[in-house]
Amino acid sequence: KALLVNIFGGIMKCDVIATGIVNAAKVVGLKIPLVVRLEGTNVEKGVEILKQSGLAVIAARDLDEAAQKAVAALR
After folding, report:
1. Which residues neighbour 28 within 8 Å (Cβ) at sequence distance 6 or greater?
2. Where is the ATP-citrate synthase/succinyl-CoA ligase C-terminal domain (predicted)?
């Protein structure tokens, strides 16, 4: 199993979404690969939040790359 999150943050900003993803992953003690693709407002801030989280988050630039990385994480 893997979790793939694909977000286009138009109304909701990517940094807010990234903070929510990090908090949720820590609360539930996520044990499966987490692949995240963010696009939209404050995407750079969102990616930085994911990088600084201390979690093994796999970042992707687009949905195709995210899907490939999710499958690769399962092997």
Report:
1. none
2. 1-71
